[in-house]
Known about the structure:
The protein is mainly α. Helix content is 61%, strand content 0%. It has helices at 3-28, 40-77, 91-111. The longest helix has 38 residues, at 40-77.
Amino acid sequence: xxxxxxxxxxxxxxxxxxxxxxxxxxVTGMKCMKCMEDDxxxxxxxxxxxxxxxxxxxxxxLVATSWYGNRVARAFYDPxxxxxxxxxxxxxxxxxxxxxSLAILGGAxxxxxxPRRETSYPPTRGYPKNAPSTGKDYV
Length: 139
C-alpha cells in the first residue's frame, strides 16, 4: 500500500483507540458514578481530561478522513488517471467527517463542564435600609 494510505489507516486506528480510552476516562468522571465519589474536583477533572482525549481522537479522525478525501479528489481531477479507475466520495468519508465532528463537539462539551473557581472578591452586600425620617432632621 501507499505510505499515505497506511498513515490514514494508522490515524483512524489511533482515533478509535483514543475514543475508547476517552469513553472510559469520561465515564469515571460522571457525577452518577460511585468511583472517586469523595473528591468532586478530581472527578470533574477526569471528565475534562476525557473531553480532551475526545477532542484529540476527533482531530485524528478528521485528519485521516480529510487526507483520504483530498487524495480521492486529486485522483478524480487528474487528467492522467483512467476514467474506469477514478474514485468518488463514498459514504465512509461522510461518516468519518460526521464522527470526527461529533467527537470534537462532545469533547468540547465535556471540557466546558470544568468546575468554576471561586472568586477572591468579598461577598456582595446590599444597601443598608434607611430608618424612616420623622422630619426633625432638617435645620
